[in-house]
Amino acid sequence: MEEQHADAPWRWHGPPWWRPGPPWWRHEPRGSGLPWRSTLLFTAFVVTGTHFSARNQHGHRASLDVLAYVLVVVASGALLWRQRHPVPVVFVTAAAAMVYLGAGYPYGPVFLTVAVGCFSALAAGRRTAAWTAVGMFWAGHVLVAHWLYRWLPPPGDSAASWGQELLISAWVVAIVAMAELVRVRREQWARERAERAQAVRRRADEERLRIARELHDVLAHSISVINVQAGVGLALLDSDPEQARTALTTIKAASKEALGEVRQVLDSLRTPGDAPRAPAPGLDRLPELVEQAAGAGLTVTVDGEAPRLAPGTDLAAFRIVQEALTNVVRHSGSRHARVHVDSAQGVLRLRVDDDGPATGAEAGGSGNGLAGMRERAAALGGTIEAGPRADGGFRVLAVLPLRTSTEGALAHREDR
Fold it and tell me: Taking each helix axis from N to C terminus, what angle separates 162-236 and 368-379, rounded to the nearest 10 degrees?
């Protein structure tokens, strides 16, 4: 897994509002999975810095020799594998720096290799290894600076002051804390990216379900009317041509309306975010539903009047009544249905009754139509009850809030 992570292309882990390209020191040769350039630059910096540090500490620390430069190169060169193998790297850098310190060589940027190794291990999630390596390095420094200096070079060395030790400890804690902060921020950004991706998928699923409901309601209602009128036209084609002509006219009108509504749904897919070309249907079109149902041989009476509704609630109420009447046409032996509309106590009640009896196995409401009605109601915080009545027939009762939670929150902010 570590090797696969190292081979992955460089990615920005910062916030989305600032997304620069990869830094110049991370532009590695094509086909390489190791940070060659950054490691070579860092190694050159450490070697050069160690050379100048030795000049400033001449006479106080041991002179640099081949072993000193080997330790410096080993500690810096090990960082080449810091992405693939962060645990061995952090221990190698700590061990090389401890040997360098125990040999009495001048203090210098070699200790930065431990910081970089610790930083890489923490960023990779290897917290135990990073803390252990840094703890071993700090403990080794305390032993050398306060007890083992008597037997280690350079000769005549004295114990380090505890004030200096506290300063070094503060630097170690600061480096580790910074690395922990970077790790936490990277995890937070990763979670935010995952949450954004999940929100996008959720919105896509909701939109897919919305379109599926719209298409189902439009097509199921119109095709039911067309099916009934086609049967009437075929039956009366020879005996009553005028009635057959009326059935064909109804078929033409129903198919034209269905095509228009399907086109409106498909337009929302082609140009997402644009305003619809035609207003969404609402309860003000109940007379059209009654007329279409009459064309299918169903007499519908409507009592009550709906209040002014929000567009989403108005569309859901219309589709629920439309689907309920479609189910009567398809699954009920009754040729009469009643629609009752009333509003009280902040809710809209829609009741659709028919006298039955059921003519098919799906009369109990196990199809997609009833599921779609429940989804529409639930999306607004409402409910759907559907089932046979005690006196026969079937009833669909929808209870929808006149004001959704989102609209209530907006109104509350406007009042304030």
Answer: 130
